[in-house]
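To: structure desk
From: M.T.
Subject: fold request, one chain
Message: Could you run this one when you get a chance? Sequence is below, nothing fancy, just the single chain.
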Amino acid sequence: MSLEKNTSDPVGRSLKESLNVKMTPCQDLALAALTSPLKPNVFVTGGAGVGKSFLMRYFYRTVDSKKFPMLASTGAAAVLVGGRTFHSFFGLGILDGGPEATIERACRNRQVVKRLRAMEGMIIDEISMLAGPVLRVAEIICRRVRDSDLPWGGLRVIAVGDFAQLPPVERDPNRGGGWAFLDPVWEWSAFQKHRLDTQVRCQDPHYMSVLAKVRQGIVDDEVTDYLNERTGPIETEFEGTRLFPRRDQTERFNEMRLADLDTPEKTFETIATGNARAIESLLKQAPVPQTLRLKEGALVMIRQNDPMGRWVNGSTGHIRRIQPGRLSIDLLSGRKVEIEKATFSMLDGDGEVSAALVNFPVNLAWASTIHKAQGATLDRLAVDLSRLWEPGQAYVALSRLTSGSELRIASWDASSIRVDPQVIEFMR
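Reply: Done. Structure tokens follow.
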């Protein structure tokens, strides 16, 4: 069946109609592949703001989550998407003892064996942050447990992510790192590739042109002039989000701005349930702190998507009123909203809640780290683009906005705008 014919696939069409969803042409093509009766392995990619997460949320409604789980590359991502981490699902741990020892342990793990034999496939979110050897170990486990010579033991794999954004923590192939697409497991998986190109976050043509070049590590006259025009001293009172590369910088700046407000401070302790080890891990990964300190007038960021579309993960605004179970917030977009406390959960490998945190789904938004901003849509942004060290870091920072008119840059240097040459070659 050709891809063109698949665009009229009844599953995809009925899904969009029932949810009243309007998709871009490239999302339509990807959805046709995702819902195709042929069930190919699919890799969905594209730059920031093209609707990868949006597409996957709707596709996820078509599958049985117990037979087709959502797996995230990091704990923080798993908390936000309501999924499980890739490592916990496959029982990988830290790959102690090397690949073969890890495979042997996983294949003897009754829970791992039970879920792999019962499932039909999986979605792997933020695939760029999983090292190739980790992916290969999981694929071998699938084949051995399912007693099949087919890729992934016959399981269907949907991979999502952008290799031009944040890379794996370990990129040294000699130490078990390296991009996933460089490992033989990538070709063996035979992904049908779908690149989303249509911007849905940003509708500023000039800004989009600059972002496209930054994503490829290009610093030409257009990029230089654009960044220079927005570079200069940023006043302390800037009412937007500053992105820092390090967590300690973020915390210090938020504390300073909160102290400057003369309104009474109110604290909300995060209520934790579950086993102690899982709670400790979740507290490190969740987007809310153990003790949430707020004041009326404080700038906060909402860290969940609203099913009704009133806000998205990253929406920022000032607290207008604080009540015991409700916050009234004036969003920078102009909308006034009220939010209640929410639950952030960590799932174990079997999809059961191992720990949960309850508090208002907000954090102070005068500052955030670049890593924690990945996936968020910000209203106003100030950033220092000098002395960055990771490939994709500058692109992740710059691509959070809907318009370049809300961008402020403290300083920048061309060496911070970097992309791994291997990624450039892969994207071609």
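Reply (cont.): DSSP finds 17 helices and 20 strands in the chain. Let me know if you need anything else for the meeting.
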